[in-house]
Design brief:
The structure is a single chain. By secondary structure, the chain is of the alpha+beta class. 19% of the residues lie in helices and 29% in strands. The protein contains 6 helices and 12 strands. Strands 1-2-5-4-3-12-7-8-9-11 form a 10-stranded mixed beta sheet. It has a two-stranded parallel ribbon with strand order 6-10. The two termini are 23 Å apart.
């Protein structure tokens, strides 16, 4: 198991500053809206390093940081305590993004394969989600089409265990103020325009490492 302690013990060497959804087919009509939706969720004069209309801590804005040469380019590493997602690049760097993670025991650490990518995906809550909070989820039992108000947001990366879909996702969110918090029903959330940038650089088949969140360790980076 990947533990938080394992990650923290290595983090100084690795990095240095420089719901649970189900896929539904997209209709051609929905795809025709993608460009307009992308524009709708992209702030005017957007600069990834400085644009923060959402008002969260500036440390959660995308930054390029140094990364250990031992890390595999293309892999994703999620630090659930600091609320960072790192996408490893070639040449000893990584792009770092702020994220929100799951509430309490709903967070699932592990090593996963990115088995699928989707733009503006549809979403269906799982039976567990409906049973846990019917007032919030029962109305979407038959699914919710993609769009700016959809819980999966602009993009989604689907996490698999081998060939099995875990129903865990790294995805955009229409609730950007949740970034930096424990807020989701199991997934890793990102600002929509941030995951739009990440999405273009992630290849299907890459590995996502989600570290354990049960140990309380103060993040210093």
């Amino acid at each position: 198991m990947l533990t938080r302690r394992h990650f923290i013990n290595r983090s100084a060497a690795l990095f240095a500053a420089t719901g649970v959804p189900v896929l539904m087919p997209q209709s051609a009509a929905a795809q025709g809206n993608w460009a307009a939706w992308d524009a709708q969720v992209t702030p005017a004069n957007y600069d990834p390093a400085t644009t923060n209309i959402w008002g969260f801590e500036p440390r959660f804005l995308p930054q390029r940081v140094a990364a250990s040469a031992s890390l595999t380019p293309g892999d994703i590493h999620v630090d659930p305590i600091a609320r960072y997602l790192y996408h490893i690049e070639s040449g000893g760097t990584a792009m770092r993004y702020g994220v929100a993670i799951a509430r309490g025991s709903l967070y699932e650490s592990g090593v996963y394969r990115i088995g699928r990518k989707a733009k503006w995906p549809s979403w269906t809550p799982t039976n567990d989600m409906i049973e846990r909070d019917p007032a919030a989820y029962a109305q979407y039992a038959d699914g919710q089409p993609g769009g700016p108000s959809n819980p999966l947001g602009a993009r989604a990366l689907y996490l698999y265990d081998g060939n099995r879909d875990t129903y865990l996702r790294i995805h955009g969110t229409p609730q950007p103020r949740s970034i930096g918090h424990r807020a989701s029903s199991g997934c890793v959330r990102m600002v929509m325009v941030h995951i739009m940038g990440l999405y273009e650089n992630v290849r299907t088949g890459s590995t996502a490492h989600l570290y354990n969140a049960s140990q309380t360790v103060t993040a210093t980076s």
